[in-house]
Design goal:
Layout (H helix, E strand, L loop, with lengths): L3 E5 L5 H9 L3 E5 L6 E3 L2 E7 H9 L2 H10 L4 E7 L2 H5 L6 H13 L3 E5 L2 H14 L16 H10 L5 H12 L2 H6 L8 H12 L13
Parallel strand pairs: 1-2, 4-5, 5-6
Antiparallel strand pairs: 1-3, 3-4
Helix pairs in contact: 1-6, 7-8
């Protein structure tokens, strides 16, 4: 039986899909609740080096990591491209990136690096070939139905906040609304304050870019 890689329908990297096929695996496009690809027992989130850095800056990385970890499969973050070359042009400390990688390992999430889309495709097919006997499972995400989790998720979605800091803010201010009303007094650095201010105070549709702040 030909090994199969599941590809999320929202993942538009057709070049990766082509290289999966060229490496000897079939491809099935489906709507995945979490992750971009599933191969055997693994669920993969693919990020370019640029997007990986951006997700550290805006706080998305660890929310995505938590979702990966809860998917019921072995979670892997694939960083595509030259991460350290990317850092030469970004205003972020290499130590912040190293710390993020350590945090991912602490969450039991594998971090793998590929040179380009061709190598990513080969990696995904290799993972599928190693697990052909077990078949392919679809990841599931536990529903966040309780108010506490929704409150944390609301504040954690702001740039540079994340779940841990969101919970700290809720303990300090009591409610998400009270925390948002007092966001100017949050204990975060100036740059993060500027990004949060822009997200909260920019009229809808007026701007879609945070590039000037990153």
């Amino acid at each position: 039986m030909q090994p199969v890689v599941l590809v999320d329908t929202r993942e538009h990297a057709e070049e990766v899909t082509r290289h999966i096929k060229e490496s000897g695996c079939g491809v099935v496009k489906t709507r995945l609740e979490v992750g971009d690809y599933v191969a055997g027992r693994f669920v993969f989130e693919r990020k370019s080096a640029r997007d990986f850095v951006n997700s550290i800056i805006d706080g998305r990385l660890f929310d995505q990591a938590a979702r990966l970890r809860g998917a019921g499969l072995r979670p892997v973050m694939v960083v595509e491209g030259n991460l350290w070359e990317e850092l030469r042009f970004r205003k972020i400390s290499p130590n912040a990136v190293l710390g993020a990688q350590l945090a991912l390992h602490g969450m039991e999430i594998g971090v793998l690096y590929t040179e380009d889309k061709a190598q990513t495709g080969a990696l995904l097919c290799l993972a599928a070939k190693k697990e052909t006997k077990s078949g392919v499972k679809t990841p599931t995400v536990k529903k966040r139905g309780d108010i506490k989790s929704l409150q944390i998720a609301l504040l954690a979605s702001l740039p540079g906040i994340g779940p841990k800091r969101a919970e700290e803010l809720l303990r300090k201010y009591g409610t998400p609304l009270n925390a948002l009303l007092n966001y100017k007094s949050w204990d975060v650095d100036e740059k993060r304050h500027a990004v949060i201010k822009r997200v909260l105070e920019t009229p809808f549709g007026a701007s879609s870019s945070l590039d000037d702040f990153m």
